[in-house]
Design goal:
Strand content: 15-25%
Number of helices: 19
Largest sheet: 6 strands, mixed
CATH architecture of the largest domain: 3-Layer(aba) Sandwich
Number of domains: 3
Radius of gyration: 36 Å
CATH topology of the largest domain: Beta-lactamase
Low-confidence stretches: 1-23, 307-327, 556-571
Mean pLDDT: 89
Number of strands: 26
Helix content: 25-40%
CATH superfamily of the largest domain: DD-peptidase/beta-lactamase superfamily
């Protein structure tokens, strides 16, 4: 009987233990569920319906909103860990992850979970939201702008770097209200702005606003002077720095500019940019903006509510951005997270500052769109890529798409050489030539003395259109396209590192279009960069692939086996090489023919260039429907280890318009 009672007692105890365990498991699951619900609510920054005890959910939501307002329009990712019970208290870890100005802030808080009115709920406390957060404290994030990376040229020259400027505008706290309109108009007239527009901006700004009118380079000869500016009541000139090139025109189209982000840029940035941020526009500054801009630093402070660090509703920051509020001061703040700013990475280029400035200066007085591109044939380095003032900021040098005209006869000549021709090949240069009803003629002013049966060399030197068109049956359109690739035209440039059009030559064409292709018209298109690449390939005796942006840590000379620069973009029509690269023997023949353009053709003006002998080819390409048609003026030149292309839109004849520009550039480059 005793044994039976013992067995019964043991069995009852076991059943009771199982029942208690089942109850614990159920409680643990309920607690976990409550914590999971709260984590989802916190991720949405809405706890108004969350299982909370110790506070009314509505009051908790009000407190939550106040606590996180200073972090900007961003939400955390919150996940609940596993519930655990110890000494009768059930807790659940809450893992937080914030993205603030592109920086990750991670931490864990502890939630207490308990029954409340028969339901499991999380005990509300400020410490749930951030470690050690106390009643009356809110979170405020502040960003620190990193130093923007420079754009570096050959010899480590700083092409774009921080340079002194003055921000000119009206400080409304320094002028009485009745004088603000007249001051705004006077300052606008002084700096060349529309007085009515600027006066409206000043009137619309807040009572204590500084309304910027213009940013000026702070140079010794700056106009207007600070004295002239401050003579206007309320006008001020505030010293600052901005990433700038040496001059306003220096490489502007290829380098781009840096300024405050526009509304459109902010919208497209996906929260990376906000009002007041500096960002690149155009050229390399825009293409490599992420690298150049670096990463903002961010510090999160716990601040007593109502302290100087509390952001106002009017200063609400953008998504993921820190609040643009004043710095929290004194004992009212403490740092709970800090990520130091990371300066931008410099972008290294092959641009030679002296040659770039020379190219810009050479084009300074040219009215139409224009360009000069200079390449070092030995390694393909782009030494200068200038677009003249007539290009109105467009990168004509690298992105322009124009019929090349007679400079394309360089491609024709190589194709003919590959068919067995020599520079002495007799060709017929007639005043006109008709192909399927389309009449072609030579450029205006073609010398009559060089009509008739002439050697191919003379046809190239004097640019006889009809002579080259007469050879169209010896070179197919497909062969023309392939030969162009032998000279680097229309070929991918994986080491360029910049957006560019590298030329396009169709490989199929009807008879009339094929005839037009022989003189660089029809659907044949070049950029000045493509023309310079062609000239460089002739100078080197090998296909040249241009390079502009160097890899991080790589200097002027390309490393053997170097990989493509990230972000390199070629022409949409560029392709893998089709024709075999030009050989040294072929190049030698073309160099002699280009030299003949100078010694016996119509580019004799280049004989004055000092140093190595200059070779050249002029080009004039008709376009449009005017009578007489407008023309593009081209010339390419090779001079030692330098290949240059000059282009002027609506420029007349290549020899008379672009020729003098090339002469000026080569002469000064050799000095």
């Amino acid at each position: 009987m005793g044994n039976l009672r013992t067995v019964t007692f043991v069995l009852s105890a076991a059943l009771l233990g199982a029942a208690l365990a089942a109850c614990d498991d159920g409680s643990q699951a309920a607690a976990q569920q409550a914590a999971d619900q709260l984590s989802k609510a916190l991720s949405a920054l809405d706890v108004s319906q969350a299982p909370i005890t110790g506070s009314d959910p509505g009051a908790a939501q009000t407190q939550l909103k106040a606590v996180v307002e200073g972090l900007g329009d961003v939400r955390p990712a919150v996940t609940a860990g596993h519930a655990a019970t110890s000494s009768g208290t059930t807790t659940v870890p809450l893992d937080f992850r914030w993205e603030l100005a592109g920086r990750e802030w991670k931490y864990t808080t502890t939630a207490q979970v308990a029954q409340d009115g028969g339901h499991w709920a999380v005990r509300w406390a400020p410490g749930l939201l951030a470690p050690g957060l106390q009643d009356g404290e809110v979170l405020v994030a502040q960003t620190t702008t990193p130093a923007r990376g420079d754009i570096i040229g050959a010899g480590d020259a700083k092409l774009v770097t921080e340079r002194p400027v003055v921000r000119v505008g009206i400080d409304k706290t320094k002028v009485t209200k009745d004088l603000q309109d007249s001051s705004a108009r006077a300052l606008a007239a002084l700096v060349g702005l529309d007085p009515s527009d600027y006066a409206k901006q000043v009137a619309a700004a807040g009572e204590k606003a500084f309304v910027e009118a213009i940013v000026l380079r702070d140079t010794p000869d700056r106009t207007p002077t600070s004295a002239q500016i401050t003579a206007v009541p309320g006008a001020v000139a505030i010293a600052d720095t901005l990433p700038l090139a040496p001059t306003k025109a220096f490489g502007r189209a290829v380098l781009g500019t840096v300024g405050q982000a526009t509304a459109e840029q902010i919208q497209k940035s996906g929260g990376e940019l906000s009002a007041g941020d500096l960002t690149g526009t155009g050229g390399l500054e825009e293409k490599y903006d992420n690298e150049l801009r670096g990463k903002e630093g961010v510090t999160v402070f716990a601040v007593r509510s109502g302290g100087s660090g509390q952001p106002s509703a009017s200063a609400a920051p953008s998504a993921g951005k820190a609040a643009p509020s004043p710095s929290p001061s004194g004992s009212a703040k403490r740092s709970v997270f800090e990520a130091a700013p990371e300066p931008g990475t410099p972008v290294r280029t092959t641009i030679d500052p002296r040659l770039q400035q020379l190219a810009d200066d050479t084009l300074a007085a040219v009215g139409p769109a224009s360009a000069i591109v200079a390449i070092r044939p030995s390694d393909g380095a782009v030494l200068a890529a200038a677009s003249g003032p007539g290009s109105k900021g467009y990168n004509t040098a690298m992105l322009g798409q124009y019929a090349p005209g007679s400079i394309f006869k360089t491609v024709d000549s190589l194709a003919l050489l590959r068919q067995g021709a020599t520079p002495e090949l007799p060709v017929e240069c007639t005043p006109t030539l008709t192909v399927d009803g389309k009449t072609f003629q030579n450029a205006t002013g073609y010398p009559a003395a060089h009509l008739g049966t002439i050697p191919l060399r003379d046809a190239y030197a004097h640019s006889c259109n009809t002579a080259f068109i007469s050879q169209r049956d010896k070179v197919s359109q497909e062969q023309l396209a392939a030969t162009a690739t032998s000279l680097g035209v229309g070929v991918d440039a994986p080491l360029l590192g910049a957006d560019a059009f590298l030329g396009s030559v169709p490989d199929q064409a009807g008879s009339t279009e094929h005839a037009a292709s022989m003189i660089g018209q029809g659907k044949v298109l070049f950029s000045p960069l493509a023309a310079a690449v062609m000239a460089a390939s002739v100078a080197k005796g090998d296909r040249v692939s241009p390079r502009l942006v160097l890899s991080v840590g790589e200097h002027d000379e390309p490393a053997a086996g170097s990989s493509a620069t990230p972000g390199a973009t070629a022409s949409p029509t560029a392709k893998e090489p089709v024709g075999k690269p030009i050989s040294q023997a072929e190049a030698s023949t073309l160099q002699d023919m280009m030299r003949a353009v100078v010694t016996s053709g119509h580019a004799g003006f280049l004989l004055s260039v000092p140093g190595a002998p200059v070779g050249a080819k002029t080009g004039t390409a008709e376009f449009g429907s005017d009578n007489p048609p407008k023309t593009h003026a081209w010339i390419i030149g090779i001079h030692g280890d330098l290949a240059v292309a000059v282009f002027v839109d609506e420029g007349g004849l290549g020899a008379t318009v672009s020729g003098p520009l090339l002469t000026t550039f080569l002469t000064k480059a050799a000095q």
